[in-house]
Predict the structure of C2 domain protein.
Amino acid sequence: MKLVQRFSHFYSLLFLVSFSLLAFSCESSKQPENTYSVQIKPAFLSIDESPNNAKNWDPVNMFSFDHKPDVYYEIWMGQDRLFESESIKDEFKPKWDKVKPFYIPDTKPNAKLTIKFYDHDKKMGVKTGRFYNNDDLIGELKISIDELRKKAQNFDTLHFGNIKACVFAEPVMK
């Protein structure tokens, strides 16, 4: 009986260790080969508060009748979404504390990026349902990495759609 308990404990421990190693190995923070890292974070962001621009913001967010956007942004390169930020609730001037870097292939050193800012809407019902709302596009900008780097170094303001932004961009070359 004691021998069975020992084997049982041994296999339980072995299972936990192997599961931990598996979970640990899945979360790789290593930079993929043949890429360079870029981190883009809005240092200052101001969204036009005029009622015409805000008419679709938060009408389905039941507890937010002030029509302030729940802002998040995405960074795209062609058809590939490279990054999506967290959503900052009820803010015309959101601030993001932590932003993870994303990676661009070495073969595209001056790729065109598209930065899209959205108002996040709560989803009610199924995707085809009557109460389902897509997130509202607030504004988007297409810019090359070199242009973005120059504007970020000079703290130039980017204007696109209803948004004025000073963007912090930190390309980290290999």
User: Anything to note?
Assistant: The CA atoms of residues 120 and 135 lie 5 Å apart. The radius of gyration is 22 Å. Residues 35-172 form a domain with the Immunoglobulin-like fold (CATH 2.60.40.150). Residues 9-28, 58-62 have pLDDT under 50 and may be disordered.
